[in-house]
Amino acid sequence: MQKTIQDVKFDAKWWLANHSKSEWSVYTVELQGTKQTLFSQASSLWLVGLITALAILPVFLVELPAMNDYPGHLARMYLLASIGTPNQNPYYYFYLPFIYPNLVMDIVVPIFARFMDVASATKAFLILSQILVVSGAVALEMAIKRRHEFAGFAGAAVLYCLPFAWGFLNFEFGVGLALWGLASWFALESKELGTRFAAHALFCCSLFVCHLVAFGLYGVTLAVFELWRAFQPNADWKKSARILAILAGPGAVILGYFFACTANIDKGASEFSAGANEWSAFAKLISILHGMNGYSAYLSAANILAIVAMAYFMFKERCLSIMPQGKWIAVGFLILILFLPFRLFGGDLPNLRIAIGALLILPAFLTFRPKSQFFRFVPALVLSLIALVNAGHIASLWLTYRPEYAALQESFKQIRS
After folding, report:
1. How far is CA 227 from each of CA 135, 230, 241, 356, 360, rounded to the nearest angstrom?
2. pLDDT tens digit sequence for 12-41
C-alpha cells in the first residue's frame, strides 16, 4: 500500500533518530516525491498533451492520410452526406433501418459534415478518435490510481499501430470510448447501482455500434475485474452477484439481438460464412510483430523490443509491479490473444486488436514506485520516443503519397457523367 505524507513523516522521525544521513536520504526522496505529486501530475499531463499534439500533427500535413481504408471511408462519407440533398443517388445508395457494429463513423461524420466539408469532417473524426484513445487511457489510470503516471504516453505510442494506421477508424474510436467507459465504471464505484447500470448500459450500446472488439475489450475487462473481486476472502457475494448481473444484463441483450439479426441474413452473404473465420498461428504471430507500426515491420519490432526491455528493467529494479486484479485481466487478455482466430466474423486481426487494447488498459493496473528521478522518467521517455518516431515515419510516408493522391483525384475529374 502506498504511504501517505503522514506515514512518511512518522517513519522519518524514527529514521532520523536511528540512522545515518545516507540512509535518511531514501526517506527524503520519498517525502519530496509525495509533496510534489500534484506538480508532477500536472507536468505529466501537459507533457502528454504536447506529445499527443506532435503525434497527430501528420494528419494536418496532408489532405488525404495514406491509410489503407481511409479512401473507402471518405467515399462512403460523401455518399452518406449526400442523402437527403439534391446530390443523392436514390437508386443505389440509401439508409437501411438496422443497428449493427461499425456504424459510429457513419453516424458522426454526416453530422460533422453539416458544419464543414466532408473531407474535413472525416479528418475531424480521425483526430477525435486519436484524442479519445490518449485521453481515455489517462482517465482510466486516474480512476484506478487517482493520479496519472504513464498511461497517456502509452496511448500516444499506439496511435500508429497497425490497426489504427491502416484506417480501422470505427475500431479506434471504439477503443477510446471503451477506455472512457471503463474509467466511468470505476469512478462511479461509490454511486448507486442504478447510476452505474445506466452508465454501463449506455456505454454497452455505444460500443456495440462502434466495434465488436471494442465492445469485447470493455466487457472482458469489467467481467474479469469483478470476478477477481468476488473471489476475495472477504467478498460480499450478494453484492458481487448484483454487480455481475448488472454487467451481464445489457451485454446479453445486445449479443442476443446481434445473433438474432445475423441469423436472418442469407448464408451466401453472411459474415458467418466459411471464409469469415480463419485460424492461422503463423499469421497471428506475424501480425503481432507488425503491430506497433502499420508501415514498417522493422520499426514495429524495435518498438516492441523497447517496450519489453523497459518493462523487464523496471520490474527487475522493483520499480514496477502489477496489481492482483491486473494479473487476472492480463491472463484474460492472453487467453483471448492465444485462442482467438486470425479472422473472426469476417474481421481481421482480433488477436492484435486485443493486444493493443491490453497495452492501453494494463498501465492503469501497474504500481509504479520509482527509486529515483531517473527511474521516474524512464516509461514516459521510452513511450514518448516511440510515439514521436512513429509519427515522424508516418509523416514522411504520407507526404510522399501526396502527388499520387493528387493524380488520382485529377483522374476522377476526367470521368464524364
Report:
1. 27, 5, 10, 23, 21
2. 443 344 444 433 333 333 434 444 454 466
